C-alpha cells in the first residue's frame, strides 16, 4: 500500500510540474499565455490530491491542509480558465497581472504541499 501511495505522490508532483513548467517557460520568454498543459496538470494534481486525501494506513488526513490546497487549486483553475478564455476570445496575450497571480497561486499551492 505504501508503494501505491508513493506512486500517487510522484504523479501528484508531476501534475504540479505540468502547471509550473509552462508558466515558467512563458515567463522566461515574456509571452504571457496559459498552455493547455497547465490546465491538464491542474486536473492531474486535483485527481491525485483527492486520492491522497483519504486515510492511508498510519497516515491521518490533515483536513486544514486538504481544504487549503483545494481552495488554491480552485482559484488557480479560475485564473487559468479566465486567462485562456480571454486570450482565445481577443487573440491577445493574458494580462500580466492575471499571469503573475496564477504563478503566485501555483507556487503557493506547491509550498503548501511541500512545507505543510
Automatic annotation (TrEMBL):
Regions that span the bilayer: 6-28, 40-57, 63-85, 97-115
Domain of life per record: Bacteria
Source organism of the structure: Gordonia iterans
Keywords: Membrane, Transmembrane, Transmembrane helix
Name the UniProt record assigns to this protein: Fe-S protein
Amino acid at each position: 500500500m505504501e508503494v501505491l501511495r508513493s506512486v500517487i505522490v510522484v504523479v501528484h508532483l508531476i501534475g504540479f510540474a505540468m502547471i509550473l513548467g509552462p508558466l515558467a517557460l512563458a515567463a522566461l520568454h515574456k509571452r504571457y499565455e496559459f498552455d493547455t498543459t497547465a490546465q491538464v496538470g491542474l486536473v492531474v494534481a486535483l485527481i491525485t490530491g483527492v486520492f491522497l486525501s483519504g486515510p492511508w494506513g498510519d497516515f491521518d488526513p490533515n483536513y486544514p491542509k486538504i481544504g487549503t490546497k483545494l481552495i488554491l487549486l480552485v482559484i488557480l483553475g479560475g485564473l487559468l480558465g479566465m486567462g485562456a478564455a480571454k486570450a482565445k476570445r481577443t487573440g491577445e496575450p493574458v494580462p500580466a497581472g492575471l499571469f503573475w497571480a496564477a504563478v503566485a497561486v501555483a507556487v503557493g499551492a506547491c509550498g503548501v504541499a511541500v512545507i505543510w
